[in-house]
Amino acid sequence: MTAPETSITTVPRLYTNKTLRNAFGGVLSFFILLLIGVLAFSIRLFSVIKYESVIHEFDPYFNYRVTQFLTKKGIYEFWNWFDDRTWYPLGRVIGGTVYPGLTLTAGTLWWLLNSLNIPLSVETVCVFTAPIFSAFASWATYLLTKEVKGAGAGLTAAALLAMVPSYISRSVAGSYDNEAVAIFALIFTFYLYIKTLNTGSLFYATLNSIAYFYMVCSWGGYTFIINLIPMHVLLCIVTGRYSSRLYIVYAPLVVLGTLLAALVPVVGFNAVMTSEHFASFLVFIIVHVVAFVYYIKGILSPKMFKVAVTLVVSVGLAVCCAVIAVLIALVASSPTKGWSGRSLSLLDPTYASKYIPIIASVSEHQPPTWPSYFMDINVLAFLVPAGIIACFLPLSDASSFVVLYIATSVYFSGVMVRLMLVLAPAACITSGIALSQAFDVFTRSIKFQLPGLSSNAEVHAGETSSATAEAQNDAVNTGKSEETLKDRSSRKSKKKEREHVEKPSTKAKVEKKRLLALPLEASVISLLLLVLLGAFYVVHCVWAAAEAYSAPSIVLTSHSHDGLHVFDDFREAYAWLRHNTDVDDKVASWWDYGYQTTAMANRTVIVDNNTWNNTHIATVGTAMSSPEKAAWEIFHSLDVKYVLVVFGGLVGYPSDDINKFLWMVRIGGGVFPHIKEPDYLRDGQYRIDSQATPTMLNCLMYKLSYYRFVETDGKGFDRVRQTEIGKKYFKLTHFEEVFTTHHWMVRIYKLKPSKNRIRGKTKKSKSKTSSTSSPKRNGRKKKNPWH
User: Fold this and answer.
1) CB-neighbour burial class of residue 135 (10 A; exposed 0-12, middle 13-18, buried 19+)
2) What tens digit of pLDDT does each residue of 619-655 get?
3) pTM for the whole thing?
4) Fold of 565-751
């Protein structure tokens, strides 16, 4: 009688140990996640530590300016803000043309901090928004991966995402761009989708729609979500994995998510009128047809079911054909078939270079090179295939979504280097799964190979299962002694059946683990190699965060034999404009510098980085590509007073306007046919030396860049192009130099007034003509300078 008592007392102890183990694991996971969040935040502070707390790049300056306006004027003024300092003379309605998620998020943070008597400036909040949300993105990655393959894989994936260089490049302190919050919204939306798919909870389905709404507010990349999820739903239906949970997760997303998306002014009716969203509606119809088929299958006999299926499928096909016909009509009525230019560039990588050079001219829209994959995701590129294999062992709805996610993101990242940012979370999730599975296999192999541990594990497992079974059986026999004979016999049969199944299953599990065990030496070496691989990844990520992605483009540095050199020419030029020009003066430059000019110099610009009006940008490109007199006429007609050019020939700065000049020619020639690219090329080569074409040597961009350049070294040697310039000595007749920065990186010119330009011609005409020439001259219509 002692054996049953021992077994009964063993069971609570086992359950207690398991509960304590789970509690300890939960607390440990919490602290690990906390450390991962701290790591994600701190690794992005190199830009502040090495340089200063400043906004980076170009687009973030517009976001910072908009956030300043929001905090000063309020939300209603923000929605109705018409900005007359951009795109002169057209202007821009900011509230209806901007994704407000980032601005509203940073504005809310600033308001909360000031409500708590933490007086931080708007600029400081904007600088640190991206590092804060990188920690949130790491935690969201943990939640997503945990739903797919458990907590171990989730912690590994979160740690990988916290350091991955591709994400760091867009989330360092000062990188105040839409992707700062959009990547968190992307991952969190996917987590809620998987959570709803696993649980079938309508509560999580509603949260999923709200998360999707936040993503729509934050970034135009929300179209990736509204196409990837329908693809996964269709995949589940085709592979026979349909369930009511699939309907619960998808139907609210399409209905509620689309309604919420239409509330965002920049999206509006595009949520239902553009081709990017049509796939979700088509799958929505298919899901309802399949759901109705499964419903009638459960309430009808097989014979009646066949008849009903025929009817349902017929009606469903008719509805689908009608919807497809409407979609085709809508698509056919659009010149771009209902797709945006960027979407068409993703589907057809050659589309932008053929038809929309303004998109192709952006460096981040170019295809990546193979070294960029190693730079941005490093060793994850080698772990992704192993993670995909692990997702198939076994294959579930959640793991199939991860496989689809990584497959589509790999394709899109190969088309556009900017979308390496979308690939990073997928690569971290699959790599986290691979590393977690590998560590599990190797540690289990070591446990079964070490002497004493293997036998103890088997005995412990056998004793646990037998003690649990005996305790359960004794409890049933003693607690249910008053049951009828029929119930007792049925329970005895169930008891024997359970014992017959449980004991072999326990032994089978032990034998299976033993068969899967690797040799001890191989397991130890493999673990050391994995640790070494992780250490290499950490070193590379820290280097990328500290050196490659921490430098703000507004302040440049260079290392040479005599130490560190800092080039602060951009802020020097904008400060000069702010203090030495009138408030209403208009500044013309290439569109790259529009946001910075408006935000830092507070002057009106002709074009900026929004690039919404191709004709306006082509006008500026045409002026830069034209001779000096024609360019003066174009700029004068636009009321331009100053022209700003960026030149890197003296210090070796490669991203200057001379290197971008062919894109100005292509964009300008796309609207004004008299601008032809071959006129600027010598035998198909772009040259600025003595072999350059006369059209190139006489265009405005060449003259504004190389004016007085020969005075720097006596030769006029361009360090970027590695050659001497072709035309060294010339004078400007319609422009005058008013400011050049210390390192010649930014040069500002002023348009000469027309009376100085035609002074001699005016005197000559006065001596020849009488007073009758005056009404003729006054009555002459002004000629359009670029037709």
Assistant:
1) buried
2) 999 999 999 999 999 999 999 999 999 999 999 999 9
3) 0.84
4) Rossmann fold (3.40.50)
